[in-house]
C-alpha cells in the first residue's frame, strides 16, 4: 500500500471537495431520514403498508449511495466521484418534479436543485479532480 492509502488524514483537501462531501452527507441523511419516516408511517397504518414499506426501505437503501460516495470523497478515493456525480444528476429530475407541484414540496425542490447543482460544480472542479487523481481528457492525450 502507498503512503496515501495508509494515511487517515490527507495533506490537502480542497474546499470544493469538502463541500461536495458535505452535500453527499446531507443527501444521504435526507434519504435515510425520509425513508425511515415513510417506513414508520406505513407500519403505523397510514396508507397501504406494503407500498409504504417498500418505498421507505428503498429510500433508506438509496441513502447508502451518497453516503458511501461521501466516505470515499473524504478519504480521497478516485472511484467515489462517479457515484457522487450520479447522485447529483439523479437529484435534478426529482427537484424538477418537486418544483412543478403546487404544494409544500416546492421549497424541497429548490433545496434539492441547489444542492445538486452545487455538488456537481464542486465535483467537476479541476482542483477536485486533480486531488482525486482524475486526469482531464486533454491531459490524457498528452
From TrEMBL:
Which keywords appear in this protein's UniProt record, sorted alphabetically?
A: Membrane, Transmembrane, Transmembrane helix
Source domain of life: Bacteria
Membrane-crossing residues? 17-40, 52-70, 82-99, 105-125
The answer to keyword Membrane applying to this record is yes
Name under which the protein is recorded: Integral membrane protein
* Organism the protein comes from: Streptomyces evansiae
Amino acid at each position: 500500500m502507498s503512503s496515501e492509502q495508509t494515511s487517515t488524514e490527507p495533506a490537502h483537501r480542497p474546499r470544493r471537495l469538502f463541500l461536495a462531501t458535505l452535500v453527499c452527507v446531507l443527501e444521504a441523511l435526507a434519504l435515510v431520514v425520509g425513508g425511515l419516516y415513510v417506513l414508520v408511517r406505513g407500519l403505523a397504518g397510514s396508507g397501504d403498508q406494503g407500498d409504504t414499506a417498500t418505498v421507505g426501505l428503498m429510500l433508506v437503501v438509496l441513502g447508502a449511495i451518497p453516503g458511501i460516495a461521501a466516505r470515499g470523497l473524504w478519504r480521497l478515493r478516485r472511484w467515489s466521484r462517479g457515484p457522487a456525480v450520479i447522485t447529483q444528476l439523479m437529484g435534478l429530475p426529482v427537484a424538477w418534479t418537486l418544483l412543478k407541484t403546487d404544494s409544500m414540496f416546492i421549497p424541497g425542490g429548490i433545496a434539492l436543485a441547489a444542492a445538486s447543482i452545487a455538488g456537481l460544480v464542486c465535483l467537476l472542479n479541476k482542483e477536485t479532480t486533480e486531488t482525486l487523481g482524475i486526469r482531464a481528457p486533454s491531459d490524457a492525450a498528452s
